[in-house]
Design brief:
By secondary structure, this protein is α+β, with helices and mostly antiparallel strands. The chain is built from 16 helices and 25 strands. The two termini are about 35 Å apart.
Length: about 600
């Protein structure tokens, strides 16, 4: 997700691993009661939906917000993810396929017939409203990458209530621009939201930069006030299939159908609830009660540590299926830290660290087999047309002896089980590298998301394996949002304390569905948390954007796999989903981690 989980994240996008040890209770019995009409969905522990405005900053750019909350109420211009694949779903999208000019320097979008819940039409003015807000407040957009969206849209022309043309800064490839730029647009109800205060009147404030800033500041303040969600009339006007019934301080979200929803698959349920859990044990306790039980969940997950109980969970009425995400996983290193940054800036040093990561062991042990390796910036799964065959092989396979030898060859005294030190300072061959003083220690802090025993196991393995080459890692944990907030490039006037961050779920490519790396590895990108910069990388990323075909992804992904802008980690399936056998329409699951409860119904 582009962005920071960005995370999406994307940015980081990000659903965590699950772990709990608990015996599974015996089976539930059948019932002749009529089919249910309320479906329940288990939220990720400790990360409930908490930001309703689709124009979300990096700290709120998480899957629970941008994939499982906001789009249920406010539909993006183009919907992605169909039948378990990464592709545009033209049937669900608000607009017809975009029409690009022959020179590639402009694109026209024509809207379909959609209505807001107050009866007003969704128009090109609502698209312009979004564009004006994101342009004036781009540093507050979790998907922002300098020079790209929204910078690369230099003007908009509203041709009619249903047509808008975007003027582009240069010629772009249609696939890139549709998948990564138009994909970021969510029309907003200008006739309700274009105001600067709660008591102010609606006007065209967004059409000046100062006005657009004032409108965003107002909307952001309102969206940040969770206590007002249940009464704030701003959030009552939606164009998605659902509207909010309530959201409480624990994160319990209740949605009901939007009677004016104009798209396909109008809700069959009378209510959809997202259920918060303080930890994975609580979620599994609810799950083991069986689908349809009073305090259970219809769509939850089996903790990976309990994967051996898959058959037992199936036996009480669930279908247990892995949720395959369009994602990669990595440890973020801080290139801007004045002490550790010079070490991370040395390619040989990153290569040595990568050789100390045992991805296969993590998959088999911490993930109970429910994962796959990450060798570069394009996901291995689900099956896709973007992946280069050469990236399906590990350039830096796990080898502690080779890692230690690489450090020695570059001026380090390796102290296995202790701390390796730089013995030969300098920037010539065989020396530690520029900015690394003699006596510098390979000792780092690594903060990761708390509360997940699978992550604990994974990090303890990393600590142990790093130690074989004298790379000392001090582990600490913090809530997911805290880990994400700490991962920001350091500035000259900022105390720089972090070395490595790992939030566990990785980077989901959303809303930058074309895996070009523009939002995570290009210089200055909002989700380039470690401040990585490489001119060749920037050039290759640019080529992926302007090419008419996806072949330009090949040199980019090969270079990124080799250069290691991050440390590749195995990617767990976002979750081992447990879906009620009576809940129809929930599978196949969207690899972009979006959910579509409007398609769900219960069999009798």
């Amino acid at each position: 997700m582009a962005g920071a989980d960005g995370s999406v994240r994307r940015r980081i996008a990000l659903l965590a691993l699950s772990a709990v040890v608990m015996p599974l209770a015996a089976a539930a019995c059948g019932s002749s009661a009529p089919a249910k009409t309320t479906a329940t969905f288990a939220e990720e522990p400790g990360l409930p939906p908490n930001y309703i405005l689709p124009l979300a900053g990096a700290a709120n750019f998480t899957a629970p917000n941008v994939s499982q909350f906001q789009p249920l109420l406010y539909r993006p211009l183009y919907w992605f993810g169909s039948n378990g694949r990464v592709a545009v779903d033209n049937d669900v999208s608000l607009a017809n396929p975009p029409q690009y000019a022959s020179d590639g320097k402009s694109v026209t979008v024509t809207l379909k017939h959609f209505e807001w819940s107050d009866g007003q039409l969704v128009t090109a003015r609502d698209v312009e409203f979004w564009q004006n807000l994101v342009t004036a407040n781009k540093l507050n957009w979790g998907g922002y990458s300098p020079g790209e969206y929204p910078d690369n849209i230099t003007g908009t022309t509203v041709n009619s209530p249903t047509s808008i043309t975007f003027k582009l800064s240069q010629a772009y490839g249609p696939t890139f621009f549709t998948y990564n730029e138009l994909s970021q647009i969510t029309p907003l109800p200008q006739h309700v939201w274009d105001k600067e205060s709660a008591t102010g009147s609606v006007a065209d404030y967004d059409r000046t930069p100062a006005g657009a800033v004032a409108v965003y500041n107002f909307l952001n303040a309102q969206s940040s006030d969770l206590t007002s969600y249940n009464t704030n009339t701003l959030w009552r006007v939606v164009d998605g299939p659902w509207k909010m019934k309530s959201l409480d301080k624990t994160g319990l979200l209740k949605l009901v159908p939007n009677a004016r929803y104009s798209g396909p698959s109008k809700p069959k349920l009378t209510e959809f609830d997202e259920i918060p859990f303080s930890n994975e044990a609580a979620e599994f306790a609810a799950l083991k009660q069986g689908p349809g039980s009073k305090n259970g969940v219809d769509y939850g997950y089996v903790p990976y540590s309990q994967a051996g109980q898959k058959n037992a969970v199936t036996g009480i009425g669930y279908n247990v299926v892995p949720w395959v995400g369009w994602q990669i996983n990595y440890v973020q290193v801080n290139f801007t830290n004045p002490k550790s940054g010079p070490m991370f800036n040395q390619p040989y040093f990153r290569q040595a660290l990568q050789q100390l990561i045992d991805q296969n062991s993590d998959i088999n042990n911490a993930m109970s087999g429910y994962g796959y390796p990450t060798y570069g910036p394009v996901p291995l799964k689900p099956g896709n047309d973007f992946l280069d065959t050469s990236q399906q092989h590990n350039l830096y396979p796990f080898n502690t002896q080779a890692a230690a030898a690489l450090l020695r060859a570059n001026g380090w005294t390796v102290n296995s089980g202790g701390v390796s030190t730089c013995a030969n300072a300098g920037s010539s061959a065989g020396q530690c590298g520029g900015g690394i003083p003699a006596g510098a220690q390979a000792s780092f802090k690594l903060e990761y998301s708390a509360g997940e025993s699978a992550l604990d196991k994974e990090m303890q393995t990393l600590k142990r394996d790093f130690a074989t080459a004298g790379v000392q890692v001090e582990l600490s944990t913090a809530p997911f949002n805290t880990v994400l907030e700490h991962a920001t490039p350091c500035t000259t006037d900022q105390a720089c304390t972090w070395d490595m961050q790992f939030w566990g779920g990785g980077w989901i490519y959303a809303p930058d569905y074309y895996p070009s790396g523009d939002e995570i590895f290009s210089t200055g990108a909002a989700a380039n948390y470690g401040g990585y910069t490489d001119a060749q990388m920037d050039t290759l990323i640019t080529s992926t954007e302007t090419s008419a075909t996806s072949s330009s992804l090949q040199p980019y992904q090969d270079y990124a796999a080799k250069q290691l802008p991050v440390l590749w980690m195995p990617t767990a399936y976002p979750q081992l989903s447990a879906i009620s056998g009576k809940l129809q329409g929930a599978d196949p699951q969207n690899p972009l981690l979006s959910i579509s409860p409007e398609k769900w119904s219960f069999s009798s």
